[in-house]
UniProtKB/TrEMBL annotation:
Pfam families given in the database record: HTH_1, LysR_substrate
Domain of life: Bacteria
GO CC terms in record: protein-DNA complex
Organism: Nostoc piscinale CENA21
Coiled coil: none
Homology family: Belongs to the LysR transcriptional regulatory family.
PANTHER family given in the database record: HCA OPERON TRANSCRIPTIONAL ACTIVATOR HCAR, TRANSCRIPTIONAL DUAL REGULATOR HCAR-RELATED
Lineage summary: Bacteria, Bacillati, Cyanobacteriota, Cyanophyceae, Nostocales
InterPro entries: LysR_HTH_N, LysR_subst-bd, WH-like_DNA-bd_sf, WH_DNA-bd_sf
Domain HTH lysR-type: residue ranges: 1-58
Keyword annotations from UniProtKB, A to Z: DNA-binding, Transcription, Transcription regulation
Record PROSITE patterns: HTH_LYSR
Keyword presence, Transcription regulation: yes
MF terms in GO: DNA binding; DNA-binding transcription factor activity
Protein's name according to its UniProt entry: LysR family transcriptional regulator
Length: 294
């Protein structure tokens, strides 16, 4: 029994006329009659009562029709799901992100991806850069948004966002009323900073910026997440140099000031395993590329 036999049967059952069914199937009437008889012979029961004027389903034919229609519907669903999967439009993606991306590019990316590919379930994890590299290597996540550089060649990555640095100050700080702040004026301040291993690229940039102004920052408190750093600044325990997008985190007791000196841009990169052939991952990467370059 072939799939075309079932389709011939369903079409004839719907038309109940050999001529009309043959025309709909784009075949001649005699081959259609022959195929139906072959199907009946294989099944071992009649599907149709035939007279010169009428074609009617038998009782067995009616039951068989309902089952075949269900099979064909399930087959069509299977084909559709297979096609969507091959295009990366169904499935699941586990995505990691550093906390600061929640205040710049991540909401925009997720909104546009969801509009383009509503059939993929997203599982989001707020992780530091080093945690994401471990999760990717272990296969626990699919795509990440991290602070470069990345030295492991098992990953593919590309820059998708760049921004400046700003100073976060307690609102009661003596420098809080200035429009801009020179890094030199922070030489005697206590700094709130994250451990270097969490994001070496950003850490080194902040340290280098201070050293170029003639001092090494006095780190009085470490914190893992950017929002925690800002909260500690609000508690008047020190100052911090943070990515400019943190200004979107409106924390009572904190003000943000632009830096007078020219500062290098800090970067967000998208990262995934170079060996990952998943069409779902590739679809996500392509969409992010499109919107980040647009």
């Amino acid at each position: 029994m072939e799939l075309r036999h079932l389709r011939y049967f369903v079409t004839l059952a719907e038309e109940l006329h050999f001529g009309k069914a043959a025309e709909k199937l784009h075949i001649a009437q005699p081959p259609l009659s022959q195929q139906i008889r072959q199907l009946e012979a294989e099944l071992g029961f009649e599907l149709f009562h035939r007279t010169k004027r009428h074609v009617q389903l038998t009782a067995a034919g009616e039951v068989f029709l309902r089952e075949v229609q269900q099979i064909l519907h399930q087959l069509q669903q299977a084909i559709q799901i297979g096609q969507q999967t091959s295009r990366g439009e169904v499935g699941k993606l586990v995505i990691g992100f550093v906390s600061s991306t929640a205040y710049n590019i991540l909401p925009f990316i997720l909104k546009n991806y969801r509009n383009c590919v509503p059939g993929v379930n997203l599982e989001l994890h707020e992780l530091t850069t080093d945690q994401q590299l471990n999760w990717l290597q272990e296969g626990r996540m699919d795509v990440g948004f991290i602070r470069p550089p990345i030295e492991n060649n098992i990953f593919s990555w590309e820059t998708i966002f760049q921004e400046s640095l700003v100073v976060a100050l307690p609102e009661t700080h003596i420098l809080a009323k200035q429009a801009q702040i020179s890094v030199t004026s922070l030489a005697n301040e206590g700094f709130i900073l994250f451990p270097r291993k969490l994001a070496p690229g950003l850490y080194d940039l902040i340290i280098s910026l201070c050293q170029q102004s003639g001092f090494s920052p006095n780190v009085v408190q470490e914190a893992i997440q950017m929002q925690t750093i800002v909260s500690i600044v609000a508690a008047e325990m020190g100052v911090a140099i943070v990515p400019a997008s943190l200004q979107h985190l409106q924390r009572t007791g904190v003000v943000y000031k632009h830096i007078e000196e020219p500062t290098p841009k800090v970067t967000i990169a998208m990262i995934w395993r170079s060996s990952d052939a998943s069409s779902t991952v590739q679809k996500f990467v392509d969409i992010v590329r499109h919107y980040s370059r647009g």
